[in-house]
Each structure stands twice: as C-alpha cells, then as structure tokens.
Specification:
Radius of gyration: 29 Å
Shape: globular
Helix content: 25-40%
Number of strands: 14
Largest sheet: 9 strands, parallel
Distance between the termini: 105 Å
Number of helices: 10
Order of helices and strands: HHEEHEEEEHEHEHEHEHEEHEHE
Strand content: 15-25%
C-alpha cells in the first residue's frame, strides 16, 4: 500500500508529467514555433524582388560575345601594350542595326610616335584575333609604312575600325580637361549597396526606380552627397511582359492622359528630382507619339532627359530637342560585363569619347564589383576627366 501524501514514480524513479505541465509545455512550444514562423515570414517580406537591370542586346548572341572579346584584345594590345591613353582616340561609337541585330560600331584612331611601332602592333592584333573563331574576320589595309587600317567584323556585321598612324605625329589638341558624368541606375531595391555607394568620394548622380521600397534612403543619400536625383522611368521594352521593367511601367498601349498621370505621380514621389532617364524602353522610346507625351510633362516641370539608348532605333533625344527639353545621350554602359578588364576598357572608352567630343555620360548599375572598381579607379579618373553633374552635359 502506498503511503499517504506520496506520488508514485515510474520506472527508474522518474516522476511522471501530469496533464497540466504537459499542456503548458505544448502551449509554450506552439508559441515558440509560431513566433519563429512569423519572424521568418516578416523577414522574407523585407527582401523585395529586384527588377532586372538595363536591357542588354542579346547578351548570349555570338555578335555580343565577339564584340566583348574584340574589345578585350584592343585593351590588351593597346592599353596594356604601352600606348599612352591620350594617343588613343574614340572617333565614334555609333549605334547600328541590321537583320534584327543591334550593336555599337567603334571607330578608333591610334597615334604612334614611331613608324616602327606599327608592325608589332598589327602582328599582335592579327595573332590575337585568329584565336576568336571563324565568325570573327578582319581585313588589314597596309596603306603605307607609317599607317595601317584594320576592319573587323563578326558574322558579317562590321564592328570595329582601327587606324594606326605615325604620320605627322603630335599629341592631339583637345580640351584641357574633358567633362564626364556618371549615373548609377536602378537604385531603390538594395539598402545594403547604398552603404558602399556612400563611401565613393567622387560625383555620381543617382537614378531611382519609382515605387521602390528604399526610395527615401536613396533620396536622403542624394541629398547628403550633393548628387542629382534622377527618376529612372520604367518604359515598355521589346518582348513585354516576358521582359518586365517592374512596377510603374509606362506602356505604349496607355492613353495620353494615363501616361501623363503616371509620369506625374512618379515625379511627385521624388522630392528634389532634377531629371529623368529611361529604364529599359527598347519599344517605348521608338514611338515618337508616346515620347512626345512624356517630354511634354518634363518640359512643364523643367526636368532634363538622358536617353539610356537601350535600342539603336530610339527617337527619345530627337523628340526631347523638338519639344524643348534639355537632353543628352548615354555614351557607355560601364558594367554590362563585370570582368575587371571589361570594366577598365569601358572606362577607357568613356574617357576616350569625352576627350574626342568634349564630354560623355556613363551609366553603371548597383553591383558591388562596379563600385569596387570605381573606388580603385578614383584617382586615375579624376586625372583624366572633370567629373560633373549630368545636368551640366544636357542641352
């Protein structure tokens, strides 16, 4: 018989858990699991889906790959080969299109101090180009002992012309300090990248996507850095909606009033905005009627427009000038390829165009590799061009 006031123990002497403690344990466990789940869901919601960055021109095509490879060879043979940067002129970087393909044609002039430099450079070019495969072809015109001309193509598309000359060699007379502006596109969806951007200590203007979750932080950063705030206006691309610029996109199917209202709402959501550049828009920017509506809204508000040139068939700059909006064209996308040599060559291209034309606008995106490159390039960039705000290069 058990003693009064004593509770029975189970096997091994362990106390049995009664109904009440068991209930409390289960409730506590349930609360803990539920709280963890709620915290996980809330944390997940703080990570917004980032819209795609700028359209790239068929990045997987043979033409795009070959142009990148040719640019890499130019960088290695000329810049790494010891030709002074100021003796390499980008006479033109012209958009071209044919048979559904779009690309930038590059026209280079390379001044050499001695005729004897031409042969080793042409040999190095020829040897390197042979390694690119059957689609890349070149024609070398040896016009004289002191001049040579390369014509390069990929799959029948004429991509580069490079003239090497030592005739009447002289340092080119250009502006003592050409001007360049750099825009950081696609901001507003990554809070962490803003910290890196805040530590870059040369002028950069900030292009903010409307309806983005961190637009207040971007507006604050622009104010703190003295940067110009730009509305990165989403516009309908080719192959929409498979290619989607994100929320707030203006579409060619919209009526004029709807476009005006949407553009006005986006502008109104960004206090201090100075101008606009297009996000995607390879279809919308080819429509003169629709671009006229957009430019009318910018004119009323005194805002500038920078054509990001996501298609060679854009009419944006032409319509801006016609309506009376101060405008400019993007010269270079800095970071469609994040390889260090590709970044360096695109920066050389920006500097070269600025030296030839007097000014140039480059666009980069919120990639950590891009910002790391820019931080490492700060001193060289400041020594090559005068960095200015975008509004100074619009007219």
């Amino acid at each position: 018989m058990s003693m009064p006031g004593k509770r029975k123990t189970g096997r091994g002497g362990a106390k049995r858990i009664g109904p009440k403690p068991l209930f409390v344990l289960l409730v506590t466990l349930g609360v803990t699991v539920t709280s963890s789940l709620v915290l996980y869901i809330c944390h997940s919601k703080t990570k917004p889906v980032i819209p795609a960055y700028e359209e790239t021109r068929r990045p997987t095509s043979n033409l795009a790959r070959d142009i990148k490879d040719i640019d890499a060879i130019i960088y290695e043979v000329l810049y790494e080969g010891g030709v002074p940067e100021r003796d390499i002129s980008f006479l033109a970087v012209r958009p071209r299109h044919r048979s559904g393909m779009e690309w930038d044609f590059t026209d280079l002039l390379v001044r050499l101090s001695e005729p004897g430099q031409i042969h080793p450079i042409t040999s190095s070019f020829a040897q390197s180009l042979k390694g690119l495969g059957s689609l890349v072809s070149y024609k070398l015109e040896r016009t004289s002992r002191d001049e040579a001309l390369f014509h390069l193509s990929s799959g029948g598309y004429y991509t580069h012309r490079i003239r090497l000359t030592s005739r009447g060699y002289a340092r080119p007379e250009r502006w003592p300090m050409p001007r360049a502006a750099l825009i950081v596109d696609d901001l507003g969806y990554d809070r962490d990248i803003l910290r890196t951007l805040s530590r870059i200590n040369f002028p950069m203007d900030l292009s903010l996507l409307p309806m983005s979750p961190y637009r207040e932080e971007v507006i604050g950063l622009a104010r703190a850095k003295g940067s110009e705030l730009i509305l990165h206006l989403p516009m309908e691309p080719n192959n929409y909606p498979e290619v989607n610029p994100g929320p707030g996109t203006i579409l060619a199917s919209m009526g004029d009033r709807e476009i005006r209202n949407l553009v006005g709402e986006h502008i109104g959501s960004m206090p201090g905005v100075k101008g606009v550049n297009n996000h995607m828009g390879s279809y919308f920017t080819t429509r003169p009627d629709k671009m006229t509506v957009v430019m009318g809204e910018l004119k009323k508000r005194g805002l500038f427009f920078v054509d990001s040139r996501t298609t060679t068939q854009t009419v944006a700059f032409e319509i801006a000038r016609k309506v009376g909006v101060s405008a400019a064209n993007r010269a270079v996308f800095l970071d469609n390829d994040l390889h260090p040599k590709a970044l360096a060559f695109q920066m050389k291209r920006l500097i070269g165009i600025a030296r030839q034309k007097g000014s140039a606008i480059g666009i980069c995106h919120p990639h950590k590799k891009s910002f790391d490159f820019l931080k490492s390039y700060t001193d060289r960039l400041k020594g090559s061009v005068k960095l200015v705000r975008v509004s100074e290069l619009t007219n």
